[in-house]
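Record type: ASSEMBLY
Status: queued
Input:
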Amino acid sequence: MGDSNYSKAYIQTLIDELKTSKIYTDLQCAAQVEIAKPTLRLSELKKGVLNGLVNSGWDRKLRNAIYRFLQTHPKLQFPSPPPEHLKEPLVFLRKAQQAWEKRILKSLNSMCTDLNIPLARKRPEKEQKEWAQKWTELGIDGPDLSQFRPVYAPKDFLEVIIGLQNPNYHGSDTPGFYHLWGIVQVPLKVKDIDELRLQYSDMSINQCQSGIDDAQDIPSELFEQERVKLGKKVINTNHGPLAQEFSKKGCPTSMRATLWCQILAVELDEIDILYYEQLKTNVLQHDLLVDSLLYKDVKLTATNDDQYFVFEDFLYQVLLPFSRDTYVLNHFDYNSASPPKSYIRGRLGMDEFAVNYPPNGVIPFHGFAMYVAPMCFLYKETITLYYVFREMYVRYFFRLHSISSHPQGIVGLSLLFESLLQTHESDLFFHLKSVGCQPLKVAFKWLVRAFSGYLSSDQVLLLWDRVLAYNSLEILAVLAVAIFSFRKTNLMKVQSYNAAEAVLADLTTLQVIPLIQLSLFSK
Amino acid sequence: MSKGTKVPGYMQGKGSRNPRGIIGDREIRYKCSLQNTILDVLRGRPGWQEVPGQNNIPQNVQANPKQQGQQSTGQQPSNTGKSGSGSTNQGTTFGNKGSVRNPQQGPGTQPGVPTRLGFQSIPPITRNSDGDWDFYWCDREWLAQNYDTMFLYEHQKILHFRNHYELTRKNLMVKNLKRLKKQTERELGKAEGQSFEFFPTTYELPSEYHIFVEEFKKNPGIIWIMKPAARAQGRGIFLFRRLKDITDWKKGEYQPLSDPNREVPETYVVQRYIENPYLIGGRKFDVRVYVLVVSYNPLKVWLYRSGFARFSNTRFSLDSIEDTYVHLTNVAIQKNAPDYDPDKGCKWSTQQLRKYLCAKHGVEAVKNAFKGIDNIIIKSLQSVQKIIINDKHCFEMYGYDVLFDSDLKPWLIEINASPSLTASGKEDYDLKFGLLNDVLNVLDLENRLTGKEKRIGGWDLLWEDGPILADDGNMECTPNGTTASIPNSFLGCHNDRKRQLRELFTAAQSIKKS
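Status: finished
Output:
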């Protein structure tokens, strides 16, 4: 480890975290097993135990655990920043996020009063049994959802983002002192194309890629066979960083499931299985209002989708337990959003009676289920699917619906999209702007859903390969630009917003990897 | 073979006409008895003309021959039956008057223009004015009524073989398969017979009732499925576990024999039910595979790379065997399910399915599973190869229904000779439109191809008197030597038919010129 890069406090947190986690006791047990071995010499006790741990694969596991910590905990620039700075350093964005949360909560509450439904209720014994029985086929007769509407849709969220203003730039009354071309008016630093080229250099055109060079009409001995051979080696080492590096050129279809697990450090043991069962029990015992929202969302999106309708039941089996999972709360340490609070009846406003609602602190919006849907193609067991999704959410997806200054946050991605399009397709951007169609208005929903439900499922997986491999969501903005470039000829002819939207309505035929290459490396 | 016993008209006019049966430079005249996608395809084909008149009404063979001079279209097949080779001349005369289409009129002429009154017909440039159509997408009933009496010219193409039911009736299909299996075991040994283990134990009822009961008692507790042999689209199917269920049914079905008004009891097949189907998202599905046979002797088979998987509407479980909806994946039956949503269609493309299976089981396992489907196709066609009355005018597009079990082994459920061509949605329409267009490309009435193609649009040549390999010739070039025999079969692979066709036609043109 390059010690110099990490502060003492950071390493201390890491050690503390490791000590409280299961791997600590596991390591201890494994060390005891090593000590008990008769071949061990007393004089070389330490060396012998260490070698033993390396040989039995524990060293890999420890490395993976540390790597996981590094990935999920941002490096601190200063020794001890206040916690709210960890969430979001810019005050005005923090405030905007809080205001947005208030709005969501208000609309959730008014739905409760309008429909006369409690936020949560305990299910009667009989109903619990019923639910336990139909757990694997929850889609057959769900609750009556005609009254429910999604709390918000990407469109509403875009309005909020458009309205963001940096007060430092608008101190005077003179308008247009600092005015960006696009609709996002928050000046954040975003990468330019050269930086992106460097970052994604493994995707350049002279490199063979899964998703292009393994197409069926290309003889497999040219690329695919070697790729699969290498992939098997990588999987055998079971080392997160290695799997991540390998995935930079995409995962071969049959290895993706394992590689993703390794990158995300998802390795199921009995405790995880037990934990999921507990979450399931929680679902059976209590009926939450968010359940209906999740139900509604699945019905509106996945059930109506040609590719995903098959997985309707899987989605319930993942989403409902997810809403009960308090582990998810941890990610609010570095998420600008905060979990909504609800108070026990009659104790409104008293902090000691406050509970997080829903227990995981995430209120679903229209399209939320689509974060899970593509992964149904990877995992047959709901439990693996659950943990991979949970990890994907707390690492990446949460950024797509909270306001923050993080370069991978939705504001940063929107801005990156606009600035790339302005710089490299200026004529197109200008044309669309002048006919009243701001490009972001079309692209925003793609970004919020990480393109899930817009592209065909295999393309979504190829795209998410790169999100995982480069540990960054910036690729989403690059792809959005690429799609605009690709359809440029037609877009230059449109004269209205609706026409532009029609040109970009169907993305299911697109091949994402060549498109990304095109926009990153061809100019 | 059957040729000796039956000499229909088409056998006799041989040799007197252009051997290749090329239509020449006039438009291609077609008839179509269906109103769905196929009609759109035929109408959309440049240079093709619909034969005006009654397309949908099956023609009456007994039509008075005297009227034929005046009454023009649609009756041509009937006048040939009575006079063998003589009909050539006769036919020409009739045809000249009858033929409405004349080249000068061009494709602008609308179908439905009055055909008999005041229309001075000019003899077409080509000789083939006798048959008033070149291509007929007919229904099976029409063929059954008219085939034995009709006269076909070299170039004419008609859908269906005379006795297609040998493969599509469930009882006959099993009978034929059992026979070929026995023959294979006799000639090549038991091991070779293993390759026929793709249809579940099946008996014909009532004829094999007693053997069935014996088998039933040997395997208590397993589930059986009962299907009417001749009905389609999942009608009349039910499952049972106890013999009592079927004795009740037997009474109901066979008792009325005493009733003189009722005909002989309907033939059923009873089949061991596949209890461990492969499930996706908890649902059962079957795969529709399109197969085109252009000749039975030699056997020439094309396999279409696209198709679809149909999902059952509800989750699979063996607890409720009364619930027909769970067990059958036929869209026709599903339509009656209480919560059927027509927009959804419950379909995946075969490409989608293959991708899914690849992700779950790896490329090799899926390759093997799909190889199993190739085997099903070839074996089933071979089982009737000697029985089907071969006729070079005939072709057949089969819809195979295949089910995977949880070990990814494919099972043959049934074969349809008239797979549904009605589209359930846009994607389905695009699939069927491409499929049918490519059928016409394979048949190549326009004579644009060389006849040596291994792939035409979405169709891959699977068998021509023997297996076809994906790449022949440069086998020694492969570094590891393992790819020596890749079959030319690409079910569920990428289907870029338009691009392929463009390249194909360009290449064929240049070959022909040189």
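Annotation: Chain B has a mean pLDDT of 73.
Annotation: The longest strand of chain B covers residues 299-315.
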